[in-house]
Amino acid sequence: MEKKVVNPGLFASSKMLPKGFNKKKFILSYSVTTNPNLQEIQNLSKKQCLVKKYWPQIDKIKGWMITAETATFMKWGGLGVIASELPEAFNASFSERGDSLTVVTPLYLGDTKKKKAFLKDDVYVGAEQIEIKIKKLKTIDVPFFGEKNTLVKNKVDVYSGRYNNTNYIFLGNERFFSINTHKNNPPAQDGCYVLNEFGVNEVERFAFFSKAVYVLIKTLCEHKIEGLECPNVLLANDWHSGALSGLTKYFTVAQVEKGSMKPDLAAKIKNIPIVHIAHHLGYQGWDYENTSKILNSLYEDTAAMVFKNAKAVKNSNPRATNTLIVYDCYNQASCNFHLADRVVTVSKNYMEEVSKELGFGFDFRDILKIRKDHRGFFGIVNGYEKKLISPNKEKIAEVNKYFGCTNFQTFDEKTLDIKVKNKQEFINLISKIATDDAYRKKVIPLIDVYKFEDISKTVKDAARTPIICATSRLVEQKGYDIAVQAILNLAHKYEKFKTEYPIFVLGGAGDINYFEMLKKLKDKVAEIDKKKAQRIFVFRGYKDEFAYAIQLASDFYMMPCRFEPCGLTQMEAMAKGTLPIAMSTGGLVDTIEDGVDGFRTEVFFTEKRRVYGSNLIAQRLKNNENAYTETLEKALNVFYRHPKQIEQMKIKAMEKDFSWDVEGGSLYKYYNLLSLGHL
After folding, report:
1. pTM of the model
2. pLDDT band for position 413 (50/70/90)?
3. Would you call 109 helix, strand, or coil by DSSP?
4. CA atoms within 13 A on the CB side of 311
């Protein structure tokens, strides 16, 4: 690896970092100083990671959830779900005590062709087409680099509104929060992650978002704003708000040193504790080209001072010796991993994985291990509102109305016989989609399908025919290639299948290459047995009613994931009596009890290393493909030979409650963490 050298005197004559400084050879070294402010910056990472800072007494939580996504107004993944559901559950349970969580998020405006958001008078319609009445409270100035790479005071409008039982603060700025796409926007980038019409990418957008939140907090600490209360604890939701700790804890001290901020104001801001919620550590907010620009935007004329002293906690990784960059690249998550008061990830097992394995923890493995060893790093499983994911009459009525030819029925763990009827309904539905082209275009207009075939006459006994589905995104994480290999292994091994061959329904939105892989699966199985191939349905795209119908009818849900920090789809599936067949990784270990309410692999590997399971079994199975094939076969064996056991497992799965507010559950762990600093 090429060494990067920085001479401490390199930035001596500059208050900002030179353009492209990260593209030159430099070694990071830190001068010994007697200056108390510079000492504070140099020692802060060590102090935070070793949990040596006192957690303030918080009698009434007045917290802010700082988030780029919300399931209510801009959803792209699981981090949007936690951003909406955790505050709503928190406020429902604790508002009578005087505690509250407020959501702070950008006011996105524009149209990506898939996501559209607009403001009409005082009504904001978010990208999920939910309306909220909002009120403009103030306009603040947020210094950040503009088009000409100079600091510009960007106007940010601060709005407030209330949805359900939760207050929202929206931050509006046309340049940074427009979602109208640039002509060069990559096709896979959508929603709040687009390269927008002004050439602003996702990392620059969320660095600006962090800066805007900081300026708003500073404003509230200095002056009262009618309708807003200064927070006493912050939840930073993933890498998008990863710059926040550096702003509240570095920038304030640097401004005191420069004489532009009073010490008492700096103390108010930097003593607000920050809890960083880490979802998938593979997403960190990298931006090599804009490293200088973003750091100068965040720290202004103290950027060189902060950078020269931003010493990381001692660790064995030479790439992570500075808290603001990783090796030579701006990394949005890095600052919070080093400087946040606490770090949480979305399951206990994923916490163990990222603090042990380089393949999971990446450049932050050593830092997270230090935090875990000193009780500053916790794993809390994402909750879910069970009433929203269980089969419910209203949703099923909507699905029946949408398809026009189905009679799906509501069921629970006491009426699993109805699920069998739903299987037959789904077999009829997918056969109609296969044979009626006009109907297919009407009900799944944006979904590409491949050789759907009519199986309504060939399935003799729906009850004894397992339906196995996967409706996750078509991305590497979800392990569709592992699923393909397992299904091929099954087709080869059981050329003469004596019972009803399984029906596989596989697909989702995402990478076209994985769709091509699924198409090849169907063709390869057809070479083995055309009748088996008829029962393989592969597609690309997403339609909520279609995905809901698939889960409603399926017996099993495939999750051969390479990693899964928490996972929500297994919770959704289990609530519908659909048993997950999962890899033993991340939150899947915490949420699925093998042989009780689902099936998990006996071992799990990453980068050819055994991460989960015994060494003896690992030597026998050798890789994830073999481990997953064995688990798929095990699930089918139980289905065919022990139907009563499958029924009991489905009952257990449906009885399981992942609701936020279940007694002793995730919500109460967050409450303890926010108020006490520990679980």
Report:
1. 0.92
2. very high
3. strand
4. 18
What does the angle CA 404 – CA 408 – CA 409 come to, to the nearest 5 degrees?
135
Query: Within a 10 A sphere around the Cβ of 661, how many other Cβ atoms?
Result: 18
* pLDDT tens readout for residues 537-590: 999 998 999 999 999 999 999 999 999 999 999 999 999 999 999 999 999 999
Confidence of residue 11 (pLDDT cuts 50, 70, 90): low
- The H or E element containing residue 449 is strand 448-450
Instruction: State the Cα–Cα distance between residues 271 and 579, nearest whole angstrom.
Output: 46
- Cα–Cα distances in angstroms (integers) from residue 323 to residues 28, 47, 80, 333, 570, in the given order: 11, 13, 26, 10, 36
User: In the numeric block, which tokens belong to residue 134?
Assistant: 């909002």
Q: Are 154 and 175 in contact (CB under 8 A)?
A: yes
Instruction: Encode pLDDT of 425-446 as tens digits.
Output: 999 999 999 999 999 999 999 8
Q: Using one digit for the tens of pLDDT, what is the confidence trace for 475-513?
A: 999 999 999 999 999 999 887 777 789 999 999 988 999
pLDDT, mean of residues 311-321 = 89
Detail the DSSP E strand segments found in 121-211: 123-125, 131-145, 151-163, 166-172
Q: Which CA distances in Å does 267 have to 47, 263, 545, 597?
A: 16, 6, 51, 50
pLDDT at 178: 98
Residue 641 · residue 367 · CB < 8 Å:
no
Dihedral class, residue 567 (left if φ above 0, else alpha if ψ from -120 to 50, else beta): left
How far apart CA 76 and CA 69 sit, in angstroms, is 7
What separation in angstroms does the CA of 115 have from each of 108, 247, 429, 484?
Answer: 10, 31, 28, 31
Contact 677, 64 (CB under 8 A): no
Mean pLDDT of 16-34: 88
Phi, psi of 130 (to 5 degrees): -100, 135
In this prediction, residue 6 has a pLDDT band, given cuts at 50, 70 and 90, of very low
The alpha-carbon radius of gyration of the chain (Å, integer) is 26
- Tokens 């009563």 belong to 644
pLDDT at 25: 80
Q: How far apart are the first and last CA of the chain?
A: 41
Q: What is the pLDDT of residue 312?
A: 95
Strand segments (E) across 609-673: 609-612
Alpha helical stretches, state H, 300-416: 303-309, 334-339, 348-354, 358-361, 365-373, 386-389, 393-403
Tokens of 569: 């789809």
From CA 100, how far away is CA 92, in angstroms rounded? 9
Taking every pair of Cα atoms in the chain, the longest distance, rounded to a whole number of angstroms, is: 83
CB within 8 Å of 294: residues ≥ 6 apart = 145, 203, 204, 207, 287, 330
The 10 Å CB-count burial string (b at 16+, else e) for 483-492 is bbbbbbbbbe
- Residue 3: pLDDT band (50, 70, 90) is very low
Quote the tokens at residue 526: 């057809």
The answer on pLDDT for 1 being more than 80 is: no
CA separation (Å) from 202 to 110, 178, 474?
A: 15, 11, 21
pLDDT of residue 149: 82
* Integer Cα distance of 308 and 303 in angstroms: 9
